[in-house]
Design goal:
heterodimer; A: alpha+beta; Jelly Rolls; CBS-domain; Beta Polymerase, domain 2; 4-stranded antiparallel β-sheet; 24 helices; 23 strands; globular; B: alpha/beta; Nucleotidyltransferase, domain 5
């Protein structure tokens, strides 16, 4: 018996080994050799194909042939493989900066592993990845915890056959003390019955208890798939306000999950707030809840979640506030006179909100408003929601892109005409509008209205290359701050640095760039990370370039989030402005690499739209 | 301290014992030991070993598990890691809480004879590395004598390095005071900036000892590969 658990455990915290399954990690761990290098001792030269080296403890300095400093690597980081230093491939010599314990994987085994595992291999072929590999312990922990829905299932669900009578079902539910039961037909899930159904559909309607349960159950209930991501499942349940959902595997029910199950598992989960929001009935109560947001933001960031997850969490809270306000508005002003939907634009639409955010929203109606009463209704509704959001900390949009503004309360046809004008007769102003309006998502109300609009708009933008050319020119206006950085990195004292606007110089350029790629592909998805995945899948963008850009965005976002979380901890208002002194030299180099990649992607875009 | 004479004596004992020993695996080991010519750490094959025991008395207590790992060319080969649980008629008793080995876990173990066979097979042609060699070596000697049915005065020849002894003599030479506990494996590892391993069993401790050996060797001689001879002990 060879006992290598703690070696595998450590490997699982090292990128990209964390992408390998445990059986393979065990095999890899048997191929490793451990060596100890006292300070300043030479460990290896990259030219001689030394295989891969993992820093188990200590720190390693990489220098070039003239002994000029190239990089420094720490515990859990790798060297020995091909490394691009500032996008340039160089041979290097590795020396122990401190006394170091190194795990070596010989070249043959390393190459074999790369050949077998495409993802593992991709990591080393992406020059960005092998530079930006600082996984945090926290991230590993949060990811290694419960990740798929199946992990949460504690026991088999109670099921009954569709032929059983209502009476038998109720008796069984009361005997087992459960509030819902799954209905199956030939072991496949066909429905669900809850206490509420028995009240509303049986007792209130005086249905004969001897009738079969099939007649009163909810047919084809919403369900989760065993392999669903827990966070996504929770988000889904919160959004649609489901209390419990069956979990199926190959259409067979394997469990029943309540939102509480997930929340208990992640007791400090930000989405607990979402649940609370749906239970509050006045704006004042919501304002009290909104005070919890800063703390939750910090906690989410400190959990080491990646920036995509943070964006989703924070936005889900904004969504919940918006929905709740709309429900309250409808309660106050009566039912709406027609189908409508509440739209979000910008970061809320992209689900990429952070601590500091303003509102961008609008209304879409199924038809033109007729008469003063209808106009009055939606004007008051918009006022109620926008004012409410402002009080909750989502300040008014400085550009007045809000439902509050009568200009952005339009019918479906009016919206279509508006977009058509922007796309067919592009000018700088309309292009600027488009960069906001093209990131669009329904928050509340009729889904079909929004889908209809999106489908048409995306198709139009895909056809019109001139329009996209305008968009591209606009996107290239924001350049990553490389000059600033170069000066900075060279001087490295930071005493007179002005700080760095990560949003305008880093995040906006990527978002703009990816939006255009998404339009080329005709994708209506708004989230930048998912857009990147989609354009890579569709071959609009080279897969490696796409992954690199994704990591660049993630890194810049991560730095911004950490910075904002620190500001809030210190009681300051969060900003997008990061003073360079606040960054470690490792972070600075990583940021610089990220900006370089953005520049490269912009150059590619420029030559494409010349 | 090693002299040509003591090396010659060890070799002679190896060949004499190999002549009378009836266990093939042990004879193989003895032949390997006879040919052993330890030089620098980079070219000396080593085996780092740790035992878990039911107590400290060689007459009453038993070996309950053996862990080892091999060092070649100055590198520990993690693929050579071995952890054997030894089945014993005696109950584990109180020491179970220390080693977190339970009786039923031990039942899945192998006999002491098989365990020793595997250990000495792995140790062939290698220098032994222990942390606090005295106790472990004494238990191995007793177990081997029973295994090979040798007389009470017979010693199985071993060339050993003891990380505890090396540190102690280094500190004494430099006049550094040694407080109780300073030379424990965990303490020494921290002193050499080695990672803290959670959970102890024979293998984890053998691996920990092997890493400590490499770290000490590197510190003892920063310019060239360390000559092992001054630190070797012959059993």
């Amino acid at each position: 018996m060879s006992d290598i658990a703690h070696i595998v455990d450590f490997l699982r915290t090292v990128q990209p080994f964390n992408s390998l399954d445990v059986a393979l990690l065990e095999k890899v761990s048997e191929q490793l050799e451990v060596a100890y290098y006292p300070q300043n001792k030479t460990i290896l030269a990259s030219e001689s194909s030394p295989g891969l080296a993992i820093i188990r403890k200590g720190a390693v300095r990489l220098v070039d042939e003239e002994h000029k400093f190239l990089d420094k690597r720490y515990e859990r980081e790798l060297f020995g493989h091909k490394i691009y230093f500032h996008l340039e491939f160089k041979h290097y010599i590795a020396e122990a900066e401190e006394d170091s314990l190194i795990w070596h994987l010989n070249d043959e085994d390393f190459k074999k592993l790369c050949k077998q595992q495409a993802d593992f291999d991709a990591y080393f072929n992406s020059y960005f990845h092998n530079r930006l590999s600082v996984p945090s312990q926290a991230q590993y922990l949060s990811e290694s915890k419960i990740s798929v829905v199946a992990d949460l299932i504690k026991r088999k669900p109670v099921c009954i056959d569709i032929s059983v009578s209502i009476f038998e079902t109720a008796k069984m539910m009361s005997q087992q003390d459960i509030s819902s039961v799954l209905v199956t037909e030939k072991e496949l899930l066909v429905g669900i019955v809850t206490d509420k159904d028995l009240r509303h559909r049986v007792l209130a309607k005086a249905v004969d208890p001897a009738a079969s349960i099939g007649g009163v159950m909810t047919r084809n209930p919403q369900c989760l798939i065993a392999s669903d991501d827990v966070n996504a499942a929770l988000l889904h349940m919160m959004r649609e306000n489901y209390h419990h959902l069956p979990v199926v595997e190959d259409q067979r029910p394997i469990g029943l999950i309540t939102a509480g199950d997930i929340l208990r598992e992640q007791s400090e989960h930000p989405l607990r707030l979402v649940r609370d929001i749906h239970k509050r009935d006045t704006l004042d109560e919501l304002v009290i809840l909104s005070k919890r947001l800063p703390l939750l933001f910090e906690r989410t960031v400190n959990l080491g979640r990646n920036s995509k997850q943070v964006g989703l969490m924070i936005t889900s809270i904004t969504d919940a506030f918006t929905c709740r306000l709309l429900v309250l508005a409808e309660q106050r002003f009566g039912p709406p006179p027609m189908k409508y939907a509440w739209l979000a634009f910008g970061s809320q639409a992209r689900e990429e909100q952070t601590a500091r955010t303003d509102q961008d929203n609008a209304l879409i109606f199924e038809r033109k408003l007729e008469g003063d009463a209808e106009a009055e209704y939606f004007s008051r509704l918009a006022e109620f929601v926008c004012d409410g959001l402002d009080k909750l900390g989502y300040v008014y949009c400085p550009g007045e892109i809000m439902a509050l503004n009568v200009k952005w309360r339009l019918s479906l046809r009016q919206w279509k005409r508006q977009f058509a004008r922007w796309i067919d007769e592009p000018d700088p102003m309309s292009v600027m509008h488009c960069s906001i309006f093209f990131d669009m998502r329904r928050i509340y109300g009729d889904t079909r209205l929004v889908e209809d609009l999106q489908t048409e708009v995306v198709a139009k933008a895909k056809e019109n290359k001139i329009f996209r050319h305008f968009m591209a020119t606009n996107a290239l206006n924001q350049r990553p701050p490389l000059g600033f950085f170069r000066r900075f990195v060279q001087e490295d004292d930071g005493s007179h640095s002005e700080g760095l606007n990560l949003k305008h110089r880093g995040i906006v350029p990527v978002t703009d760039l990816i939006r255009i790629r998404a339009l080329e592909a005709g994708i209506s998805e708004a989230n930048t990370f998912r857009r990147i995945e989609l354009v890579a899948e569709l071959g609009i963008m080279n897969k490696n370039d796409a992954l690199n850009l994704r990591d660049a965005l993630n890194l810049i976002n991560q730095v911004r989030l950490t910075h904002q979380s620190r500001q809030m901890e210190a009681g300051d208002a969060p900003t997008n402005f990061v003073p360079i002194e606040a960054l470690s030299s490792l972070k600075r180099r990583n940021l610089k690499a990220a900006f370089m990649l953005i520049k490269k992607a912009q150059q590619a875009m420029a030559s494409r739209y010349q | 301290m090693l002299s040509v004479y003591s090396l010659w004596r060890l070799r002679r004992r190896c060949s004499q014992l190999a002549g009378i020993c009836r266990i093939d695996l042990l004879c193989d080991y003895l032949e390997g030991c006879e040919q052993l010519n330890p030089g620098q750490i980079d070219n000396t094959p080593m085996i780092a070993v740790d035992l878990e025991l039911t107590g400290l008395d060689t007459k009453k207590n038993k070996i309950i598990s053996i862990g080892w790992t091999l060092i070649d060319n100055g590198r520990i080969r993690l693929g050579s890691n071995q952890h054997l649980l030894v089945s014993t008629d005696h109950s584990v008793g109180d020491s179970a809480t220390i080693h977190e080995l339970l009786d039923n876990e031990l039942e899945t173990g192998i006999s002491i004879e098989d365990a020793l066979g595997l250990l000495f097979q792995a140790a062939k042609g290698r220098v032994w590395v222990f942390h606090h060699a005295g106790l472990d070596v004494a238990f191995l000697q007793v177990a081997c004598r029973q295994w090979a049915e040798l007389g009470a005065s017979t010693r199985i020849p071993m060339m050993t390095l003891d990380t505890l002894q090396i540190e102690l003599s280094t500190r004494q030479r430099r006049d550094i005071p040694v407080k109780p506990g300073d030379l424990q494996l965990g303490e020494l590892r921290a002193h050499y900036h080695l990672p803290d391993y959670k959970g102890h069993n024979a293998l984890v401790d053998a691996l920990a000892t092997a890493e400590l050996m490499l770290a000490m060797a590197a510190r003892l001689d920063r310019d060239e590969s360390l000559h092992l001879k001054p630190y070797l002990k012959f059993i």
